[in-house]
Amino acid sequence: MKKSLILFFIFFLTKIHSQEVIKDYPLSNIVEETSGLEIIGDLLITHNDSGGEASLYYLSKKGKILKKRKIKSASNKDWEDITKDSKYLYISDSGNNYNNRRDLKIYKVPIDEKSKEKNQIISFNYPEQKSFKINRNTIYDAEGLISIDNNLIIFTKNRAKKITEFYSIPKEEGKYDAKKIGTLKTNSIITGADYSQELGLLALTSTVNFNEYYLITVKDFYLSKTNNYTINMFKIPIGKTQVEAVKIIDNKNFWITSEDEQSSKYARLIKLSL
User: Fold this and answer.
1) Is 176 helix (H, G, I), strand (E, B) or coil?
2) pLDDT of 66-83, one tens digit each?
3) For the whole prediction, is pTM greater than 0.70?
4) CB of 200 within 8 A of CB of 220?
5) Which of 98, 127, 145, 223 could share a disulfide with 81, CB 3.0–4.6 Å?
6) Domains, the chain, with CATH or none
């Protein structure tokens, strides 16, 4: 991303479509609060939400846990998403439900488990945030994380305005002011994110009222682009549950995970087709 990149606002045409559940697998109650999703080779990777172990769980594509990887020198205060590049996994400890966190961070972890390189911490704050008083309508909560070139992009969870503002953070260890670079008017609250640079495709999960969840796709998504975007919304047809993780397979197919809720009685790994 060029340093000269400036803040821009994205206007859109929203269309709501239907989609189809292709596969639906129950997950172990060990990952009942699955909150992020990534893929390496033939394995999917997930983790739990706030208060869970500081561990990653490697899954088969039928949802079976094949391996647990404990992340050294880390704690899971409120892990919300995971992304990767060619060498590292990035775990976003960015949940800020009450507006009062001053310790937001991203763990940078080598993909190669045999690497002798130590895990790193990328700490950040929102420079616009002046108050840390408890506020359930905070605009400084975030549940989406993607990787683009040398930067990590965080998507905020704005309950009040039903938009997402996205911020850039360098991938290098250190402490940073997150840089706001854009806004998507999603008409919903963002709960997860993924990006395919090859396809230029952004995928988000979202909700309006925490009863129904949506998959959002934005084609030709590039940080240097200021033209209008078309936002397509797809209702996720799996009943009342909580969806906070998405992984792009291709332009038409996606993996998502849903948390353990009363309606489904267990967390789920689901393949969706548009």
Assistant:
1) strand
2) 999 999 999 999 999 999
3) yes
4) yes
5) 145
6) 8-273 (2.115.10.20)
